[in-house]
Amino acid sequence: xxxxxxxxxxxLVLLSLSACSKHADLDKNSCVFTxxxxxxxxxxxxxxxxxxxxxxLQFDSGSSGQVEVKVENNVSxxxxxxxxxxxxxxxxxxxxxxxxxxxxxxxxxKATREENNLVTVTRLKIGELAQxxxxxxxxxxxxxxxxxxxxxxxxxxxxxPDKDVIPIGKLILE
Length: 174
Fold this sequence. Notes:
Blueprint (H helix, E strand, L loop, with lengths): L1 H20 L27 H11 L7 E9 L8 E8 L1 H15 L5 H18 L7 E8 L7 E8 L2 E2 L10
Parallel strand pairs: 2-3
Antiparallel strand pairs: 1-2, 3-4, 4-5
């Protein structure tokens, strides 16, 4: 075992000496190795800025601060087979409470007309906004925290430019 460490150490010393000898312009008494800086793979999300502003106006026209809009890149979802960018519309506060109550009632088949229409109109708006996306592989989702003490988000609406991944539903007019 000691022999392996000795051979590995000797190999590293020889490797560093040979690397230093290849650079004639370096001072013979020193050899400096530099490790290239890690490249950042920052994505330019500025192409979504205009649409994000429009989303804010659609859902938070009074600037209540109950709507957060952000972009997540390289998202993987069960409903969408390929990785994609996603504009996430996050409801908080009173908007979150209304959407949660309405969606829970809709899922339990106990939704009032107002609750049904709130979910349907919201999904319709998300679908219309998705048609304006500059990239076909981008999605828009509307989410809220299921429980304020958890990190689990419920997706109330999810649309791509060419389809609504979560069906919109039907308006009740009576």
